[in-house]
Structure formats: C-alpha cells, structure tokens
C-alpha cells in the first residue's frame, strides 16, 4: 500500500493521518494492516470511515486486531459496527441485539438476523449509547459467559442505563458464541435463545449466585450493594422502584432497607441522575450551553436548506444522516426538505409548508425563515 501511495501526490501524508499506514521510531513507513483480514467500519449513513484488521497467522508481539485510530473522519464514539446496515431492522423489530465481535455480527446477518450491532471487544461509550438510543429503547446484550464477557456486559449496562435504555442479557450454551452457534444450529434455535433473555439485574444476581458469592453473609452484603450501584444511574423512579422490589423479593429483604442503601449509593455516585444529587449542579450548567449550540447548528442547517440550492441540499443529504438531527421538529423539517429535493420539487418555504401537516411546525419554520431566530 505504501508503495502505491507514493505514486499519488500528497497521499502518504493523508494515509498517515487516518491510520492506513504507520511510521516507526526510525522514520520509516509501513503498511498498518498487512497480513490481516480487513473489516470495513461504516458511519451511520453508510460511508467507510475506518478499518479493523484481524491477524491471519499468529506472531510474537502482534495483537490479534489492529484498528484505525481516531481521525478527522473517524470518531469511535459516533460509530457502531453494523448500525448502518441494521438500523432499519432495529427500528422495525423494536430492539437491538448487541454482540462482541465482527464475525458474530456478520454470521447473524448472513442467517437473516439483521437488528444487530457489535462493540468489537470493548465496552460501549456514552456517545455510542446515545447513538443507539435514537433507534430503539430496548437492548439485548449477548456477550461471552466467561469472566471478561460478564465484566464487559456490566460496563455496557451502566453506559446504557445513563441513556434510559431498557436492558436484557441473553446467554448461549457454555463455549458457544453467536458465530459458532448460528452456524451449528438454525435461525429459529438462535431466536429461541434470545427469547430467554432476562433483565440485567436478574442476570447479575444469578451470576453471583452461580459463583458462590451469596453463600457467605458478609460477602453477600457486598454483592447486594454492588447490584444496587447500577440502579443509581436510572433516571426513572418507577423503574427504579420496580427493580428494588425485585431485589427485595429475591434476597428476602425489606424494600425500605434497599431504598436506604440506594440513597447512600446515590450520594456517592457522581454520575447519578440529577434528581438524586445536589452536589453536581455545575455539570448540568455546562451541558445546557452545549445543547443550545447544537440547537443553533440545526436551525442554521434548516435556513441553509431553505435557500433551495439543489447542489447544497444534495451535499447535505450525502453527509448528514437524518437521525443525527436531534430536535424532533428539526428532524421533521429536514426530512421533508430532503423529500422535496429527491422528487425534484422546488425546495422553498411555500413548498415545505404545503408538505407539513402540524400547524405548530408550520408556524415554527415560518418564524425560522423570517429570521425570528437569527
């Protein structure tokens, strides 16, 4: 690859910036992905923005995977492997299945199960959880049942809870992963296994039970406190209360006792919901300007589209996925403007108003066009 890039003016520098090639301590360039199977990583709207390379032959001091570094075109927190191919099926089915590996996702897709994303061996980030929450509120985690897999699932649960997602955890028979299981059994067998997915709290409680952590009273007290920790991240008091009831019933404890313990956890947890803490107001103050700026960007985008330049609108369509627009009103307006452009109609305020059905959105976009929000 390096030799090929040498023949293209400026290509070596660009390839180095986005991690297609590397540079060693002696200043020599090398092919970053040599001798590896390549998995292209797509942005949400289907553009290749990075690569993962899995080694073909074992070698000393060589990692199993090499991934593209973050760059001007690739931000890990804004990308979920497989989401560009699976987002419509995730919406249709009402839930997403989260697996660990690239091959797990590919094998499931080849067998007709498409509402899948992969985290590629690492815990989800806040940005990825936010991205996923735009397509569904229900998630099934399917990680390996070994200790590392359980730890990864616990980390992912905590990240997903912060974004108000409903989480279940599924298991496969010991020694199986989604890739091996789906290729040895049928699609129906796999889906049957997924129907046995349980609430994340139930799964974690059973894990501690199975490894003997609940036999000793002192140890079990620590386990119960550990199980309460993720509840501090839930911003819905009804959900929180239902889960407390479940724990109380399972461990034959009073709900009042668990509620008191949860309050202790809440006071200690910096990332607890706003309603449950009084010491972290500054974080909330900092978040509001960021939301306001994002809102202004979306308004500016709509005003630009309303100028009706077909080339600009087509450019925006290619580079911005409709789901990246976070304000619901703005998403409706942008979607209708895209539709007008796709059908070769005049893209302007009058055409848009004829397409919109909700009077309050008509009033809002008219205000935007008349510089009410300048």
Mind explaining what this structure looks like?
With 374 residues, this protein is of the alpha/beta class. The protein contains 17 helices and 10 strands. It has helices at 2-6, 11-17, 83-93, 102-110, 126-133, 147-162, 178-184, 187-194, 200-210, 217-228, 237-251, 255-268, 281-305, 310-319, 328-342, 349-355, 359-369, and strands spanning 21-23, 29-31, 36-42, 48-55, 65-67, 96-99, 116-118, 138-142, 166-169, 198-199. The strands form 3 sheets. It has a 5-stranded mixed β-sheet, with helices on both faces. A 3-stranded antiparallel β-sheet has the order 3-4-5, with no helix packed on it. Helix 4 (102-110) links the parallel strand 6 (96-99) and strand 7. Helix 13 (281-305) packs parallel to helix 15. The longest helix has 25 residues, at 281-305.
């Amino acid at each position: 690859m390096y030799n090929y890039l040498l023949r293209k003016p400026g290509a070596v520098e660009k390839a180095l910036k986005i991690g297609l090639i590397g540079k060693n301590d002696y200043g020599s360039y090398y092919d970053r992905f040599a001798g590896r199977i390549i998995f292209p990583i797509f942005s949400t709207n289907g553009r290749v923005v990075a690569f993962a390379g899995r080694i073909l032959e074992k070698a000393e001091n060589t990692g199993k995977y090499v991934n593209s570094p973050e760059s001007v075109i690739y931000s890990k927190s804004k990308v979920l492997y497989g989401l560009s191919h699976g987002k419509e099926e995730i919406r249709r089915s009402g839930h997403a299945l989260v697996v660990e590996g690239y091959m797990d996702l590919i094998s499931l897709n080849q067998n007709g199960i498409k509402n899948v994303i992969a985290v590629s061996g690492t815990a989800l980030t806040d940005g990825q959880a936010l991205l996923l929450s735009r397509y569904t509120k229900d998630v099934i985690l399917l990680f390996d049942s070994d200790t590392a897999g359980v730890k990864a699932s616990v980390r992912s649960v905590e990240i997903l809870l912060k974004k108000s997602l409903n989480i279940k955890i599924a298991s496969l028979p010991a020694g199986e992963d989604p890739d091996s299981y789906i290729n040895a059994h049928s699609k129906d067998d796999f889906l049957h296994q997924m129907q046995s997915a349980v609430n994340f709290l139930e799964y974690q409680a059973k894990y501690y039970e199975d490894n003997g952590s609940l036999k000793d009273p002192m140890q079990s007290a620590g386990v119960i406190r550990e199980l309460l920790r993720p509840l501090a991240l839930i911003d819905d008091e009804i959900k929180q209360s239902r889960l407390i009831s479940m724990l109380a019933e399972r461990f034959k404890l009073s709900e009042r006792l668990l509620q008191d313990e949860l309050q202790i956890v809440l006071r200690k947890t910096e990332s607890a919901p706003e309603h449950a803490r009084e010491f972290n107001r500054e974080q909330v103050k900092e978040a509001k300007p960021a939301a306001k700026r994002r809102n202004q960007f979306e308004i500016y985008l709509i005003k630009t589209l309303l100028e009706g330049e077909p080339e600009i609108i087509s450019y925006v369509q290619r580079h911005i996925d409709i789901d990246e627009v976070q304000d619901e009103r703005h998403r409706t307006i942008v979607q209708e403007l895209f539709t007008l452009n796709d059908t070769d109609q005049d893209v302007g305020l009058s055409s848009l108003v004829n397409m919109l059905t909700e009077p309050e959105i008509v009033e809002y976009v008219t205000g935007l066009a008349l510089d009410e929000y300048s």
